[in-house]
Every structure is written in structure tokens, then in C-alpha cells.
Amino acid sequence: MNSKLTVTKSNLLIDASYRLNVQAQKLVLACLSKIDSRPDSEPKKEIKLTAIEFSELMGIDIKNAHRELYKAADALFKSSILLRNEHEETELYWIQKKVKKLRGEGAVTLVWSDEVLRYICQLKSHFTSYKLRNIASLQSGHSIRLYELLMRFNATNSRVIALDDFRSALGLEEKYPQFKELNKFVIKFAVEELNQRSDLVITYETLKKGRTVTALAFTFKQNKQLKMDL
């Protein structure tokens, strides 16, 4: 894999609410790594990705890469993103139309929606960048989303996030209603996987009002042993 490939997203998109399976997220991120997000670059609306590229970028067995690529493309279609602030909620879609499967070439072509382009192209400020290789071996979509939420605060190596905002970002508003379950199946699992498979070493603690957990406080640093690029 090209170790210099970088994913860049607007911070609004980093903190947005959406839920994609791990392969669909990896499809999005692999395609984002093909975009020059700098302000003076032309927006790249159409992206082609081959199964061989998908395999090499994400460490997927080439025998399964075609199937995983096409499944990811199907999952991405009609998947929406919710952007929220104090005054409004906006829903938009990742892609403009169904991903084209080029079966003879073992590839897909996706066309970003016009609404998403503003959050991935010509970014001047308030964005987050990280190396694609640092999430390539992750097996959980929750782990990828937690990685992004933390990298948004890479300058301080810490982030406190309200539990409701954490649930929203991972698309878990209606799943794991008890914190004990959320902690076991999502938070602990994601932190452990990131500590093992990414360039970050993470610890966290819960913040409470009375007996109720209201926020999560994460601290993190680069895992120098892995010698990955930030």
C-alpha cells in the first residue's frame, strides 16, 4: 500500500451521524484517498476503484475482494448522513446514484452526491486528515468511526464526547440502550481493536451525573512501535 495515501473530511462530516458496515466504510475511505481535497484542486466527482486496489489498500484477500467490493457498493447506495447543529438537522446521501459495477474489469465507479462534495473537496479549514493505512486492518466499522472522532482532536490527544453524541456519530441511537451493553460490545471492543491494529494507544473513562454515564473522556497517543505515519 502507498503509505502516503490520506483521507480528508470536513469536521462536520467527521461528527455527523451515519452507520455503514465496515466494508462500505472502507470503500468510502479508499475512494476519498483518491481525492485531492485542497482548496485549489478541482472536485473529483466520479471515482473508480478496482477489486485489486481494494484488496491492496485494505488488506482484503484477493479471492474475496470482488465480492466484498460489490457488497460494499450495495450497502453504500441509499445510505444517508445526518448533519446536526443547534438549529437544524440535514440529511444527505453519499452518492448520487447507484454504484456502477464493472464486472468485466472487477471494479466499481461511484459518483459523489453534490451535497457531500462540499465536505470532502476544496477544504480550507476545519477538516481532519489521517493516513489510510492506519485504519486498513480494522475489522469493525465502530472502530473506524471512533478513530475518526479521536483524530479530529489529534492536536490535543484527548476528547470528551457526550454519550448521546457518541451514539449519534456511530448510528446507535436505538441500539444498546443500556450503557453496560454499549460499553461491552462497542466501546471496549473498538478501543481494544484500535490499540492492537491502529497507530493509536487509547484509554478512556466515563463521566457521570449521579449514577448515569453522560460522557466519555478519551486520551490517546501515537503507538510508536507500529511506526505508522500520522
Automatic annotation (TrEMBL):
Keywords: Plasmid. InterPro entries: Initiator_Rep_WH1, WH-like_DNA-bd_sf, WH_DNA-bd_sf. The keyword Transmembrane helix does not apply. This is Initiator RepB protein. Pfam families: Rep3_C, Rep3_N. Gene3D superfamilies: Winged helix-like DNA-binding domain superfamily/Winged helix DNA-binding domain. GO terms for molecular function: DNA-directed DNA polymerase activity. Residues 6-151 form the Initiator Rep protein WH1 domain. Belongs to the initiator RepB protein family. The keyword Transcription regulation does not apply. Transmembrane segments: none annotated. One of its GO terms (biological process) is DNA replication initiation.
